[in-house]
Amino acid sequence: MVNLEKINNLAQNLYLEHIELPSIFLGEGVINEITNYVKLKEFKHITFVVDNNTYKAAGERIKSNVINEGIKAHVVVLTDNEHQQVIADEQTLVELFTKTPKNTDVYIAVGAGTIHDITRFCAYYMKLPFISVPTASSVDGFTSKGAPVILKGVKKTLQTSSPLAVFADTHILARSPKELTAAGFGDIIAKYTSLLDWKISAWIGNEPYNQQAAEITKDALLLCVDHREEIESCSSYGLEILMRALIESGLVMLLLDYSRPASGAEHHLSHYWEMSLLKDDKKQLLHGAKVGVASTIIIDEYKNKLATKSVDSFIGTTLEKQLTQHWGEIKTLLDDLPSAAEVAKMLSFVHGPSTVEELGLEKQLVLESLQQAHTLRERCTGLFLLNTLSNHDNRMLGYEL
Ligand SMILES: [Zn+2]
Questions:
Q1: Cα of 197 to ligand 1 centre, how many Å?
Q2: Which of 240, 221, 115, 131 is nearest to 181 (CA)?
Q3: Residue 46 has what pLDDT?
Q4: Which tens digit of pLDDT belongs to each residue from 166-190?
């Protein structure tokens, strides 16, 4: 089960005692409890948000359960694009706005990350609550407020609403496509670098840091690493472990109201790739698949280019003072990271992609992202340090930047 004690402790320490955390139902058969929950909350008109697959996987059954109890149900099957993918862009957001009946009093999102992002966005602007029913353990965003949406071709993450409750049925999760489970594992594996980058941002960028939040996220990471065999076999228990880790990571982001512990340079690379695929009208890749591979690339860069620096190389740079002061600690964390090969092996073990070739990305795009992705968000990361130091070296050598 989700460790709510740790989450509640964090909430208390952040002086958020009165925050309404989503109710979490995780285990086999929990979707059968939705009807009672809806009745308890006195919802009378539900709008289900699904795609064709998730309707079959869970939506249809939940709908018939609630209808049997006299509750009205309306289903919006979101339209996919020419790549058979549902995208959280203006067209789909407007589709859900316009297809939502006026008397709706709650949304139920049945699906993976994108269906949740579309629902949370519309729920927020329609001032309606929503219930989350993940059909795959594919991302850590189910419980967070952040809705990554594509507006005028540019990806933006807006803070919208978190679900009232999450019903994660391991029986359904265990039947989801293996690539989605591997993506969820990739989103968790990415915490190796995101947690390190968060610490770097506190030391070098003076950004806020919370030890307890970092520990909860690290525990979620190690839990999945230790149970990767159960996750690989897609057993009900393995899927429960993975979903528990994803939910805990998401709840930490919800409490902090920012995503730093769960998103560092590896997420910036992934966003950069995503924008490029969008611009070229190509098929989108799974978020977790991208960030998993991106974390192996970032580890390689950090171990081979950052950890090998000497304190002398910081002299005269804009970050000289902070880097000299914290270099010993940063170096220890860099050395403690598992190798890129070890992380790639874990990704392959759960049947996920572990190389950019497997993702089908051009080498040129990856090189470009390593030089540019840190500019996407104003966040201090190891990648930001690497680029700042190499820009300094180039300037010293007389190159125009
Ligand atoms: Zn992520």
A1: 14
A2: 240
A3: 98
A4: 999 999 999 999 999 999 999 999 9
Taking the domains of the chain in order of start, what are their residue ranges?
A: 4-176, 180-396
Burial of 308 (0-12, 13-18, 19+ CB in 10 A): exposed
Compute, in angstroms, the gap from residue 188 CA to the centroid of ligand 1.
8
CA of 194 to the centre of ligand 1 (A): 10
CATH number of 180-396: 1.20.1090.10
Tell me the C-alpha distance between 233 and 238, whole Å.
7
| Token reading at 289 | 């698949």
**Distance, CA 45 to ligand 1 centroid (Å)?**
32
H or E element: which one contains 329? helix 320-336
Contacts of 396 (CB under 8 A, 6+ apart): 316
Q: How much is the pLDDT for 398?
A: 59
pLDDT digits (tens, 9 = 90+) for 55-95: 999 999 999 999 999 999 999 999 999 889 999 999 999 99
> pTM for the full model?
0.94
pLDDT at 397 over 80: no
What residue spans of 152-190 are helical by DSSP H?
A: 170-173, 178-189
CATH class of the region 4-176 = alpha beta
pLDDT confidence of residue 181: 97
Residue 124 has what DSSP assignment? H
- Ligand 1 centroid vs 270 CA: distance in angstroms? 9
Residues with CB under 5 A from ligand 1 (ion): 187
Long-range Cβ contact pairs of 280-285 (< 8 A, separation 24 or more):
282/83, 283/83, 283/85, 284/83, 284/85, 284/87, 285/359, 285/360
Q: What is the pLDDT of residue 401?
A: 43
Exposed/middle/buried for residue 242 (C-beta within 10 Å: 0-12, 13-18, 19+): buried
Residue 308 is predicted with a pLDDT of 94
